[in-house]
Design a protein that fits this description.
The chain is of the alpha+beta class. The chain is built from 7 helices and 7 strands, in the order E-H-E-E-E-H-E-E-H-H-E-H-H-H. Helices cover 34% and strands 25% of the residues. It starts with 5 loop residues before the first strand and ends with a helix.
Length: 214
Amino acid sequence: MSEIGYFGTYTDFSCPDRKAASGFMGADNLVGDPYTIEMDYSGSKRQAWIVNPFGFRMGVLSEKIAQKIDVYEAKGWRVVALLACVIFTEEPKPGTFSGQVALFAYDPAHEEAFSAFVKTIGEQLAKGVRPAIDLGADGVSRVLSSKGSWVPTGRVPMPSVKKGSIILKSERSSTDKLVAQARKSRVGCTVASWGFIIVVVAAIIFAMRSCGVF
């Protein structure tokens, strides 16, 4: 949609670094959090990493999406992602993490409206609502006229998960909301993150056993 200076989609990510990916169980990666995109050309192929608000690489986007990002960045567009959901898969041991982000690219000529729109969508994701962000010309016009406060009426379903997997995060829990408030107050949340990590792991195991996953 280059003619209207905007692109938006939900896209999958994988987590090749298992040690870093375990951070998804904590409070440093909340649904709705803004992520930056960091291109890495050091290996045999380009990798587009999603980087959380604390500067940690958390996952890799597909090559197809990486190509799009390269094009948009070459145009000078701003590219940002929001954490939309996190998926935990039991096998292979000790388990793997993946998920989706809501990805946005837009012409910075309309930075004020689009940055506000991204924030608006982040607030919806935090509530467990997944607005359709693949906007046409009319949708972009609504974003601009509302100065970013407009919420699309269309909804995008959660990704389906295979046996042995569970959607770990799809919205912000009460604890997540407290953590988010603590961030605004500039109170560290890393300790709090590890404070309930055991509870989260136990909940995952209990839920998967209840569903007959293992």
